[in-house]
Amino acid sequence: MGGGVPMNREASRVARALGLHHTLPTAVADLVDNSVDAQARHILIRFLQAGRRVTGLRVIDDGRGMDGQTIDAAMRYGATRGYGTDEQGHFGVGMKAASISQADTLTVYSRAPGCVTHGRRLTVSDRDDVPRLEAIDDDDAQAAMDVAHPRFPFDTGTIVEWRGIRTFPTSADPDDQAAWLEGAIGDLRDWLGLVFHRLITRGISITVDVFDDVERRAGASRSVRAIDPFGYRRSGDPDYPRELSVRLADPTTMAAHIWPARTAVPEYKLGGMPGRDSQGFFVYRNDRLLHAGGWLGVVRPRPEWGLARVAVELDSATGDHVVINPEKSGVTIDAALSAAWRDVLSSGYLDDAEAAARAARRVQRRPVTVVEPGAGLPDEVLDEFADCFTFVDSADPVEIGWRVLAGDRFFEVDLENRSLWINARFRRRLGGSRKGGSDVPLLRTLLFLLSQDMFDATRHSSKQAEQLDSWQRVLIAAMSAEEVVS
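The chain above was modelled as a monomer; its predicted structure follows.
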């Protein structure tokens, strides 16, 4: 087909708009949805390398594949298909929108039972914002399928390949490339493990590897492990989980859970963040997670509800009240559903979650004693202090804030005013903001932990004074080094 056929301009703009907020993990998840709908049992995410440089990405599956008519419809803008209620597809433009959000070139090879292998390529250039579609010779498409070697039987299936990926690093430094790749693989495994945890548990295999295009060899395969946000062994309250009725025109339910306190498993600390950050609703459609945590405006999050998580299945009763975002990584709900869910939450469930958190705190062993931090740290950090430490009874809380100090002082321990001051001369260079009431919380927390025992006294000993002076000199030297580096 020569240089390719220009596609429908308006349809391409719509697809790009739908993929505008994709990240690499959400875009790949959209491709995995297609593999699931194709009844694949094995799905491989393959990063492509030339030496140490990351050059592309493939999603390979052993699903039923596509014939010529189906692959044309899948690649053509303006051509959409209806999805069954049991399928993951929703908008009909997922592969195109997800791919063009990340890459300049989308190539698809596919082989259906009893059919020849077909290939199509969609290309976007800076000179022409309308993607161009071209057919790939059947023999070339067959050759691409034959050399894929995805480590599972590949009689039928599909390869989706991205090249010219705009979100990949441009640095020529091999260490930068290696660090980015490890981080990208970790983020991808975490996201796919969360989004598809139910399907993985049921037997679908998702793996990630890195393929050297020069050596034509794949590295070690890494499995995507299911990360179940409700995967605790023992409930935080013996009366939970519990099915709660939701009053809508058609009857429906939600599954209310209370996590056990003081757990550090990945299923609770999603993405490594404090577990309480993921309190709220987890919304599923066909066992695919669409929304991970947050109360969707029904109530405002509170630290004492950090153990509360609610599983919601989209069904005929809730479907008309919910809008799925184009990236399938979040939902919004209307006022009627919000009111119905608020009634359920306020019927005792959130009170039970709060009581479970209080009870755990009373019996928790906290052998480390510190002075209590006061104003100047975010609420979630203060709450973590309360969980992890016992506070000194004889010392008042310490405020943490900014104050202009001498140029050779990084911070000041103000015993009289029970304050830890950070030198405001360095505020902008440290990433602080005059608008932030507790900005740069990591710096504030580290300085407090470093110096908190200095506040457990009415005056400093000569040894403490020498220690403070040594800290000041080292930190000021570090600030000077920061200037040289930047």
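The chain has a mean pLDDT of 88.
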